[in-house]
DNA sequence: GGGGCTTGGTTCAAGTTTGAAACAAACCTA
DNA sequence: TAGGTTTGTTTCAAACTTGAACCAAGCCCC
């Protein structure tokens, strides 16, 4: 089967995406490192916790939310715990599990730094997009996410079904991830 | 000045983008690590070199193309050199500069692995997009790239103007970055 | 109710990235 | 043309990521 190379249009799109993705992630990391003393991923972890009604999540679920490996998360949580922004808690009904819970200090950091983060996201992304483009962005990447999650070769920690959320909480959605 | 939080639409778009970006980069890394023994970034470096008429580029220019820091590139090139896929060459007219040049072996690796890479990009991205969406993708991220490159806080290695390319070469564009 | 599979989480070593500092060569400019 | 600045690249230590291996605790099922 001969390769279906990218068309010129696809190539342009791909290169533009790759370039922007690198630059954007760098810009976010730089800004958050400055203002919050942590890279974007770590901020996202806090933001995801703040989204929960009780500000806590099992490690596996948190990994699922943030789309990172359990191993990576372990390391990150350890660091954030050292910084006093997160606390680990045991799970009653499953002795294997442990929770990561946002501390008050963690919440405070989030509240203090969320505005700057959102401002950056705006400055580099949304301020340059029309309403339609925002819609396109969502459609495109929601679909891509679906495709990627369906990928069987992906090392996944099968989502836990026994609890569905609805939630929303201070900073949280506001914190923008 | 009060924070302009993201609208619900923007939030959805942002989350979709973040999720897809993580998953996509992971998928590409995994596939290339498998088939080429290197992460996506390293493949991109080779691909960018193969795009040049003479298969070589000054370090700074290569860093500019790939949107990474000089420091990161130094490390990557050192590794690829160890693997025999790249060779460092001196610059005649500027003793400070050094070139990274694709070796025959590097070119061979690229040619061998490009089809699988393109296939992956297709499977997870383009196969799910309409022609219009491909266009939107390019527009959106071209604009975002422009915004990010205009950012003055960015630690940039000012692009060198004294040579403009036109080029295209085997694998190259085909290699898809 | 005891083996065997699965799941949740961590650990370890090797690899990669970061940002600041160091160096050297080129480029002013007085 | 000497001295100061800029530019091209590397180096270093600390931080982070990776993937495989590991350990426990639950689950299954005969």
TrEMBL record, chains A, B:
Region of interest (Disordered), ranges: 149-177
Protein name (database record): MarR family transcriptional regulator
Comp. bias (Basic and acidic residues): 149-162
PANTHER family per the UniProt record, alphabetical: MARR FAMILY REGULATORY PROTEIN (PTHR33164:SF99), TRANSCRIPTIONAL REGULATOR, MARR FAMILY (PTHR33164)
Domain of life: Bacteria
SUPFAM superfamilies: Winged helix' DNA-binding domain (SSF46785)
Annotated source species: Streptomyces cylindrosporus
Domain HTH marR-type, first and last residues per copy: 10-146
InterPro entries given in the database record: HTH_MarR-typ (IPR000835), MarR/SlyA-like (IPR039422), WH-like_DNA-bd_sf (IPR036388), WH_DNA-bd_sf (IPR036390)
Annotated Pfam families: MarR_2
